[in-house]
Design goal:
Elements: H1 5-10, H2 14-19, E1 28-29, E2 40-44, E3 66-67, H3 73-76, H4 82-98, E4 103-105, H5 128-143, E5 148-154, E6 167-169, H6 172-190, E7 194-197, E8 201-202, E9 205-206, H7 211-221, E10 227-230, H8 238-244, H9 256-266, H10 272-290, H11 300-314, E11 316-320, E12 332-336, H12 338-341, E13 354-355, H13 361-365, E14 374-378, H14 390-402, E15 405-411, H15 430-442, E16 446-451, E17 466-469, H16 477-485, E18 518-520, H17 529-535, E19 552-559, E20 563-565, E21 570-578, E22 584-594, E23 605-614, E24 619-626, H18 628-631, E25 633-635, E26 640-642, E27 646-655, E28 658-668, H19 683-688, H20 693-697, H21 700-708, H22 716-721, H23 724-732, H24 739-742, H25 747-761
Family: Belongs to the glycosyl hydrolase 3 family.
Keywords: Hydrolase
Domain Fibronectin type III-like: 586-656
């Protein structure tokens, strides 16, 4: 049924229109009964349905309905699997339909700037391309069920400390390339029904009233057509926010801000057309859901099996010195650590799911008939406080010593990371590190299995034989862990973030989380692997790293062309072969390296990936495509994406530091950068531009001679002191005005030279 939205809005009173722009309560939008506008509900997500019926709250203090807790984004991003994320979204969409929820709040795509951000477990990656691809697939899955999503938190919300008031100070290029790019592709490709603006300021202006962000970028550039809602309590000035593009304030305002909107329209400070447009956007999404209602599928057992499969695909085998997979029979294996019995599988705050069942590894191992090896258990540590319990430690060491293999289930307790506050450090609880070290004294065959929403320091990494990173992998975490440990499934996840050796290595270390008023993003575009690779720094485990129980061989990298321009697409193909003896999945990563030297850029950047399943001995061709954006950086001179003419290297690898194949392609841009020439333009700048280089190069010999005195009368000592090479280098760094001093140019001649160079620069190629 096609609705005439504008006609409905025209029949509303001014007060009714203003009322539509804030929530009825914590989770419901208002309706207008006389015009057939229904009330609809929104609910927290994004890795499960946190629907609250009574005593609603934002941070998860009050109980929600029983639901399925899927793996969190910190884990699912490691799957590098678009189809898996779409399937997750479809399940969430079904659950929302079954529970009459119109919009689920998520996914969250904020960049992992620092390992300390308390909400990193809810975010996908340090890399904007990976984050955008995972988010787009998630959105498409949910919205295929006619349920809306609300991509969040727009934008530059990369910490919890003073998140309601702190200003993220970011230069334009960094904002575009890193922090907005994760949203851009997800919004363009996924087309979410709503966008949730963040709490913080961006360069001094609250996101909730930032016209450049919410209208000029989001709508005018990216073509977003849905409505923008506030994060809960993020509104600073309601009228200013509405004018900037903030359509819906959440939660309810008690009518106070609605009255402010009415007053602003009446006194002429707010154009009623702005209000009408906001209401139209809200109604369009309300009716899209209401008119497209369909039966929902909330089969929790079915979705629990999906949660287990997603967890299995997402966990990352970080290290394996031949100890894994564990023998299914004939051995005595010690499971040590509280998380083996009661796993940590999700984060705290607004995304906390009231899981209908939770399976730990200890329980799961006893339910799998194939596993006949004897499993023993010791708690090892307390999760309530970071204190060594001598009795628990002694018992754990004894159990480990009596076993053939020890598996330590370790990680971060709930109190270490949550929405609302950032981590104080990157360490694990000291009692757990002590437990690992003590067990290593008596048991050399030790595996560490981690439960955490963000990287941890691993002082014992070189001593244990295997490390399995489970992140926060949802309610079926234990079943997935056991399948991977015992080889019933083959690990295939890869890191969506770098794990540094220590916190101090992180590029944001000196500028996180700021002074409470502002936080400066001084590391610029060098976030995560972009920084570590540029600095050639050792890391614990690099971005994209992940092991398998089989091995893969890459070969035959092919490019569809040797040269391309702005409008061309480059097709890339290569062959991947399973050279081991069991089936497995490989994640092929495609990076681009700019060799032109036109800008200070990362050594390489992820621009494509594909996940491929291979039987033993099987070989498949993997294909990906790169367009101009894959080669481009954000040029603030033209306020647009720009790829310079020159060579670019295409790199295919198993991780950011395991590059297997490379080829070079030549890019020719049709974009001509503006070049304003003035008295202080240097010779080097003129030589670097192909339009002005011939003009200035023709003058170089004479200018160099003038600077050294020239002629045959130069002394031998002077010639030794100032070589021609030195003169040319000095000349390159000289501004045009220096020619008056060294070459005797008059002011009029200098002006004429600048004019000649400017005419050359303005020449259209």
């Amino acid at each position: 049924m096609e609705r005439d939205i504008r006609s409905i809005v025209s029949q509303m009173t001014l007060e009714e229109k203003a009322d539509m722009c804030s929530g009825r309560d914590f989770w419901h939008l208002k309706g207008v009964e006389r015009l057939g506008v229904p009330e609809v509900m929104v609910s927290d997500g994004p890795h499960g349905l946190r629907k609250q019926n009574e005593k609603a709250d934002h941070l998860g203090a009050n109980e929600s309905i029983k639901a399925v807790c899927f793996p969190t984004a910190c884990a699912t991003a490691c799957s590098f699997d678009r189809e898996l994320l779409r399937e997750l979204g479809e399940a969430l969409g079904d659950e929302c339909q079954a529970e009459d929820v119109s919009v689920i709040l998520g996914p969250a795509v904020n960049i992992k700037r620092s390992p300390l951000c308390g909400r990193n477990f809810e975010y996908f990656s340090e890399d904007p391309y990976l984050a955008s691809q995972m988010a787009a697939a998630h959105i498409q899955g949910v919205q295929s069920k006619n349920v809306g999503t609300s991509i969040k938190h727009f934008a530059a919300n990369n910490q919890e400390y003073r998140r309601l008031s702190c200003s993220s100070e970011i230069d334009e290029r960094t904002l575009r390339e890193i922090y907005l790019a994760a949203f851009e592709a997800a919004i363009k490709d996924g087309k979410p029904d709503t966008v949730m603006c963040s709490y913080n300021k961006i360069n001094g202006t609250f996101a909730s009233e930032n016209h450049w962000l919410l209208t000029e970028v989001l709508r005018d550039e990216w073509g977003f057509a849905g409505y923008v809602m506030s994060d809960w309590g993020a509104v600073n000035d309601r009228v200013r926010g509405l004018a900037a593009g903030l359509d819906l304030e959440m939660p309810a305002s008690g009518g106070h801000t609605d009255a402010e909107i009415v007053a602003a329209v009446k006194n002429g400070t707010l154009d009623e057309a702005v209000l009408n447009r906001a209401v139209e956007r809200i109604l369009r999404i309300i009716f899209k859901f209401a008119d497209g209602r369909r039966p929902g599928d909330f089969d929790m057992e079915k979705h629990n099996r999906l949660a287990e499969r997603i967890a299995t695909e997402s966990m990352v085998l970080l290290k394996n010195d031949g100890l894994l997979p564990l023998p299914k029979e004939g051995k005595k294996i010690a499971f040590i650590g509280k998380f083996a019995e009661k796993p940590r599988f999700q984060g705290g705050g607004s995304s906390h799911i009231n899981s209908y069942k939770i399976t730990g590894a200890l329980e799961a191992a006893g339910q799998i008939p194939e596993i006949t090896s004897k499993i023993t258990y010791a708690q090892g540590y307390n999760v309530e406080e970071d204190r060594i319990d001598p009795a628990l430690l002694t018992e754990a060491v004894r159990v480990a010593e009596e076993a053939d293999i020890a598996v330590i289930f370790a990680g971060l307790p709930d109190a270490f990371e949550s929405e609302g506050y950032d981590r104080a450090h990157m360490g694990m609880p000291k009692c757990q590190n002590e437990l690992i070290q003590e067990i290593l004294r008596v048991q050399k065959n030790t595996v560490v299995l981690l439960h955490n929403g963000s990287p941890v320091e691993m002082p014992w990494a070189g001593d244990v034989k295997a490390i399995l990173e489970a992140y926060l992998c949802g309610q079926a975490v234990g079943a997935a862990q056991v399948r991977l440990l015992f080889g019933l499934a083959n690990p295939c996840g890869k890191l969506a973030e770098t794990i540094p050796l220590k916190l101090q290595d992180n590029p944001s270390y000196l500028n996180f989380p700021g002074d409470g008023q502002t936080v400066e993003y001084k590391e610029g575009v060098f976030v995560g692997y972009r920084y570590y690779d540029k600095k050639e720094m050792d890391v614990r485990f690099p971005f994209g790293h992940g092991l398998s129980y089989t091995s893969f061989q890459y070969s035959d990298l092919k490019l569809s062309r040797n040269q391309l321009s702005d409008s061309d697409t480059l097709a890339v193909s290569l062959k991947v072969k399973n050279t081991g003896d069991i089936a497995g999945k490989e994640i092929v990563q495609l990076y681009v390296s700019d060799l032109t030297g036109a800008a200070n850029r990362p050594v390489k950047e992820l621009k494509g990936f594909a996940k491929v399943f291979l039987e033993p001995g099987q070989e498949k061709t993997v294909e990906m495509a790169l367009d101009k954006r894959s080669f481009a950086w954000y040029n603030t001179r033209i306020h647009d994406w720009y790829a310079a003419t020159g060579d670019y290297e295409i790199l295919a690898g198993a991780s950011s530091r395991d590059i297997r194949l490379t080829k070079t392609v030549h890019f020719v841009t049709e974009t001509q950068l503006p070049f304003h020439i003035h008295r202080n333009t240097t010779v080097a700048e003129l030589l670097a531009d192909e339009r002005t280089a011939p003009v200035i190069r023709s003058m170089m010999t004479d200018l160099a001679s003038d600077m050294t005195g020239g002629g045959d009368n130069s002394s031998e000592a002077a010639s030794e002191a100032i070589t021609p090479e030195m003169t040319l280098k000095m000349l390159e760094n000289s501004p045009l005005r220096s020619f008056k001093s060294f070459s005797g140019l008059s002011e009029e001649e200098l002006t004429s030279l600048i004019q000649t160079l400017q005419e050359a620069a303005d020449t259209v190629r």
